[in-house]
Amino acid sequence: MADKASDSEIREAMKALPHWELEGDGIVRAFEFNDFSAAFGFMTRVALEAERMNHHPEWTNVYNKVLIRLSTHDAGGLTQRDFKLAAGIDAIAGNA
Ligand code: H2B
Q: Taking the model in full, what pTM does it have?
């Protein structure tokens, strides 16, 4: 099981993730697309990456908006797995 990140590890990781916000024991980012098709296409790509990493987002989708929250349930907080997936999601969003 991955170790929970310390406060200083979290601060350091967040420097590389400027679009993400700390919220409780997780990090969140909101995305907005032109329409549902673009939003769901993005979610499909994120889902494949999440499955590949065996690390899965909490998320909601309303039409063209996707809200993603990342936290490591097994560890009860943030781990490097969340920061890695966040960077992967940023890359997917950048290429969308
Ligand atoms: N995703 C997230 N976000 N947190 C976890 O703790 C987690 C996961 N654990 N995906 C994985 C799957 C675990 O349940 C399986 C059994 O490896």
A: 0.95
